[in-house]
Amino acid sequence: MTAGHRIAIEQGTEHVRVVHDGQVLAESTRPLLLRETGFPVRYYLPIEDVRTELLTPSDTHTHCPFKGDASYWSLPGAPDFVWTYPDPKPEVAEIKNHVCFYEVEVI
């Protein structure tokens, strides 16, 4: 990490659910909580807890100097709704095989 920029990842026990237009897209009790300087806490959910059959791969790819290259998936009417780091940097290797949504419910 660079001076002043930090990423911390911890195993969460919260019950996290992602709902879009009344449909449950993901539900997990084993999220990873990623805390990154300048950003809200993000919940990375194991891919096994996500209904990937409802998602369509997007052509969007972004680069984060701290996490690596992200790939996105979309829903009808919700482009780039979820992202993942297929090959994250070693410092954040725990997020491999996890996905992140912009909005989640913690219940």
What is the topological layout?
Layout: E1 7-11, E2 16-20, E3 23-28, E4 32-36, E5 42-46, E6 56-64, E7 68-75, E8 78-84, E9 98-101, E10 105-106
Antiparallel strand pairs: 1-4, 2-3, 2-10, 4-5, 5-9, 6-7, 7-8, 8-9
Terminal Cα span? 32 Å
Shape: globular
**Overall average residue pLDDT:** 95
Low-confidence sequence ranges: none
Helix fraction, binned, reads under 10%
What can you see in these coordinates?
The structure is a single chain. The protein is mainly beta. It has no helices and 10 strands. It has strands spanning 7-11, 16-20, 23-28, 32-36, 42-46, 56-64, 68-75, 78-84, 98-101, 105-106. The strands form 2 sheets. Strands 1-4-5-9-8-7-6 form a 7-stranded antiparallel sheet, with no helix packed on it. A 3-stranded antiparallel sheet has the order 3-2-10, with no helix packed on it. The model has no long low-confidence stretch (mean pLDDT 95).
